[in-house]
Amino acid sequence: MKRTLMAAVAATALLGGPAMADQTEIFRSITDIAAGADRHDWDRVRSAFADTVTSDYTSLWGGDPATQPADDLVTGWSGFLPGFDSTHHMVTNHTVSSIDGQNAVAEADFTATHRIDDGLWTLGGRYTYELTQSGDRWLVTSLTMTALWETGDRDLVAVAGQRAADK
Asked: Which residue, 32, 50, 9, 102, is CA-closest to 1?
């Protein structure tokens, strides 16, 4: 009886409870960024970020990481992503590396496909996210994209920006 009770307590601790709820909310924020961007649901994207966010795309574009208001980051994305005919940001293999009080680090792999007419630009890699807890939500304070591969026409980004500006 005692062994059965201990096994039940251990299973409950491993499969549920606060740690599982935290992971679920962390994965929700990561998904809201990617799925919201593809759907042009900018409120959904914005809701996943803290008020200030650091974005690091230096592995793809060079330069330096940028720390800015999340509103500005989302405005930037909304200024060129709608210029693509379609995008698909598939984010998988979510892993929470650490939770320390109200701070967490998570990683996920991604494949991002961008299409204009018959032109495609697809890249894949990994994101590292830093998050902070705010109420029952985990908000992204930093995201670092590590590009591992790409194929197609990277110049479609400039074309998409012009198309979005012309709308």
From this structure: 9
Residue showing tokens 């974005």: 55
CA angle 97, 74, 66 (to 5 degrees): 65
* Spatial distance between the Cα atoms of 122 and 155, rounded to a whole number of angstroms: 12
* Strand, coil or helix: 98: strand
Give the count of domains, the chain. Answer: 1
- Residue 167's pLDDT band, with cuts at 50, 70 and 90, is confident
Q: Are 63 and 86 in contact (CB under 8 A)?
A: no
pLDDT of amino acid 12: 47
CATH number for the domain that contains residue 138: 3.10.450.50
**Distance between CA 96 and CA 30 in Å, rounded?**
11
* pLDDT number for residue 9: 47
